[in-house]
Amino acid sequence: MSGMRNRNAKALNGNAKRCFKLMIVDDSNLMRRRIERSQQFEDLQLVGTAGNGLEALELFKKTDPDVVTMDITMPRMDGIECIGQLVALKPAVRILVISALADKATAVEAMERGANGFLEKPFTDRQLNEAIAELMR
Ligand SMILES: [Mg+2]
Question: What distance in angstroms lies between residue 74's CA and the mean position of ligand 1's atoms?
Fold first, then answer.
């Protein structure tokens, strides 16, 4: 756990007070809470969670997150569509796709739309934190 904090602190070297804003997007309430609970970065501040792509888009405009975890399969607007819209609004946003759709085509499409990382469900706390660390590097 302290290793994660150290690595993150290093990434923020020279800008120690910077806090990154996190948005969690998943249609499962349990999964949203799991991600929120499991992430171990002190300088990642949760600004909100959304249950579908449309909600995420609205919340994004209000809260301007720097880091987003993004489910793929969701009602109303899926993660693939949402990624494209978020990146159009803020090209520098960092998006980690967290999905059970582990097929290569989905991952490739998400990356093409502008996602920066891919984590397959189910995942361990360690895998989640390593994926976030990688994303923020
Ligand atoms: Mg889903």
Answer: 5
Tell me, in angstroms, the distance from the centre of ligand 1 to residue 43's CA. Answer: 27
Assigned domain for 95 exists: yes
Rg of the chain's alpha carbons, rounded to an integer?
A: 14
> Cα of 83 to ligand 1 centre, how many Å?
14
Number of structural domains, the chain? Answer: 1
The CATH number assigned to the domain holding 58 equals 3.40.50.2300
Q: Tell me the per-residue pLDDT of 120-137, one tens digit each, with 9 for 90 and over.
A: 999 999 999 999 999 998
Cα(1) to ligand 1 centroid in Å equals 28
For the question of whether the overall pTM of this predicted structure is more than 0.90, the answer is no
**Cβ-Cβ contacts under 8 Å for 89 (sequence gap 6 or more):** 60, 61
